[in-house]
Design goal:
single chain; 107 residues; alpha+beta; 6-stranded antiparallel sheet; 1 helix; 6 strands; 19% helix
């Protein structure tokens, strides 16, 4: 249920994802796996626009900085093209709550 907010051709993208109660763990915090899923969705969406197909192989490094909460209502994921070589694309993702608090990063 992501919503495309911005796309800067061949540079970056911003997508908003709703945070729903069903994404909560027993501590009432968003499951880390759901945050990773928003990165997976966002990075692949960027690749589809950038090169018209998805990745052949993924290596996703993920760092969890803070928790996402249902009261945040949404998670905003930004994707940036960091490096392009003949055989690889390196992308970076940053997830924030609507107040701009960094929730997680990935590369």
């Amino acid at each position: 249920q992501g919503k495309l907010l911005e796309y800067h051709e061949n540079k970056s993208m911003k997508i908003s994802f709703p945070i729903m109660e069903k994404y909560d763990n027993p501590a009432r915090k968003m499951f880390g796996g759901m945050i990773v899923a928003t990165f997976d969705n966002s990075l692949d969406h960027f690749l589809m626009k950038y090169q018209k197909n998805s990745a052949q192989r993924w290596n996703l490094n993920f760092f969890y900085q803070a928790h996402g909460y249902v009261t945040d209502k949404e998670l905003i994921v930004e994707v940036f093209l960091v490096l392009k070589t003949k055989t690889q694309l390196v992308l970076e993702g940053k997830a924030h709550n609507p107040d701009g608090k960094l929730i997680a990063v990935c590369m």
